[in-house]
Amino acid sequence: MGSCEHLLVTAEADALTPEGCQECLNLGMHWVHLRKCLTCGHIGCCDSSPGKHATAHYKETSHPVVRSYEPGENWRWCYLDQRLGQ
Ligand SMILES: [Zn+2]
Ligand SMILES: [Zn+2]
Ligand SMILES: [Zn+2]
């Protein structure tokens, strides 16, 4: 398994909806944890949340990398390569 170039990208878009998951806010749903798309700044909820909107966003847009949007957490996840990084 080679290295994942997506996790090496340091540029990061500003959060579009810093107040929470974009879809959950629209639908009046609740989330557990938040993830931020580095490509466009979309805020989505994690797979432990009912909406799973971060994964839905990846499936819709193919934007490969999200990072945790939780205070004190800074790990990243590449959907394309299924790899965790910093
Ligand atoms: Zn990757
Ligand atoms: Zn959501
Ligand atoms: Zn995105």
TrEMBL record:
Source organism:
Microbispora triticiradicis
InterPro entries referenced in this protein's UniProt entry, alphabetically = Znf_RING/FYVE/PHD (IPR013083), Znf_UBP (IPR001607)
Q: Which classification does the entry list for the species? A: Bacteria, Bacillati, Actinomycetota, Actinomycetes, Streptosporangiales
In this chain the UBP-type domain maps to 1-86
One Pfam family from the record: zf-UBP
Q: What is this protein called?
A: UBP-type domain-containing protein
